[in-house]
Design brief:
38% of the residues lie in helices and 8% in strands. By secondary structure, it is mostly helical.
Amino acid sequence: MRIFDKNWMQVTEYLEHDDRIVLPIGSTEQHGFLSLGTDAILAERVSVEAAEPLGVPVLPALPFGLAPYFSAYSGSMTLRISTYLEVIRDLLDCLAGQGFRRIAVVNGHGGNIPAAGLIREWVCQPRPDRIQVLFHSWWNAPKTAAAGNKFDEDQFHAGWVESFPWTRVEGGQPPAQPRSVIPRELINNLTSAEIKALAPDGNMGGAYQRPDEDMRQVWDAGVAEVRDLLESGWLK
């Protein structure tokens, strides 16, 4: 269930019998012909679909993350790493203070990985009650990645692996032919302006789209993996 579909009293009632909650984290950044909100859209949607049968509440996705390498593309936003980690810390503190003891952070953006280190530090702080925090990058979890690899192992930013019906935008018509792949080791040493010059449309390589029936298999694997995490990923 989406937190936005409940009032605070209903959430208090929920806490009387369950202490799980999902915090999706994403980014607002260029995704080629796809929505600037792709990472946040996918993190929140996969969380909602996974959590719905379990009755676990899902917060709105944190829409801003760490994406300095895309800041030259219009509409792309980024936080300083120090700011970002303090935002994550504040959100965890708030949830813990309200009584949530099992928090699943579902990540939709590779640049947000530093949050995993902050979470590891946070859970080690002395507290009266054990609080568990799971960090799950949904798109490259084992079963989801395997589902994608079955169709094409070339899975790059703003390419087919992120092109779902709910991340496409009106008027965003990508080329039919794949783009040549930009080596990751090269990208890691470029400024945002240099990346934009090298990838003018934002795609880092490979096919732009695959058939929706292929994408459904990848999506279903992602939802199932998040649901399994929410059901069975906690310490007893």
